[in-house]
Amino acid sequence: MTGRRFSIAAGVALASLAFVATVAGAKDLKPTSFGAVYSMEVEIDQIPSVKSCAVAGPITIKDQRTETAVGERWHEDTPSLKQTVAMTGDVAAWVREGFGQIARQSMLQTGTAGKPEVVVSVARIWVQETVYRNAEYDGRVVLDVSVNSPAGASCWSGRVEGFAENYGRAGKEINYQETVNHALDRTIATMFGTTGFVDALCTCGAPTQ
Question: For residues 180 and 170, what is the distance between their CA atoms, to the nearest angstrom?
Fold first, then answer.
């Protein structure tokens, strides 16, 4: 009987130590940041090709957000203990690089004189990291887009977004970057697959017959 009581007590003690270690690990999570460094993550066959009549003039990229914080990280067992994730660097340049890469793959011509201007505004970037032994990452990018005639008239506007998931070691900068890059790629691919956007590039500012 004594041995059984000792076994139960030891089990309770080990469970308590495991819980304390988990909470301590969660408390050890600190705020972190990652740089806005672009690399294409989406598969090429997920990028739509635009119609040949779709030709863009200048591409204007704006970051309308007011904060560098783009998400949160927490331990799976203590989700109430959240820490901030920030994205540093030139986010507008990051989006411009992604736009250019996906445009080339979609056969969209840009920078053509006399053609519609595309204005892209960054509405939201979000990434969350759930940590256990490794970590799961979820990312989302939301862009507001408008197509304007060479004379400045609005021809089309809309909002597009993309989502991505990732898995890897906790707190690694490359894992955050891969996640938001993939989400950005999917957002821009969604833009190029939107009928109203493509039709506006074909007809905006064209002379009436």
Answer: 16
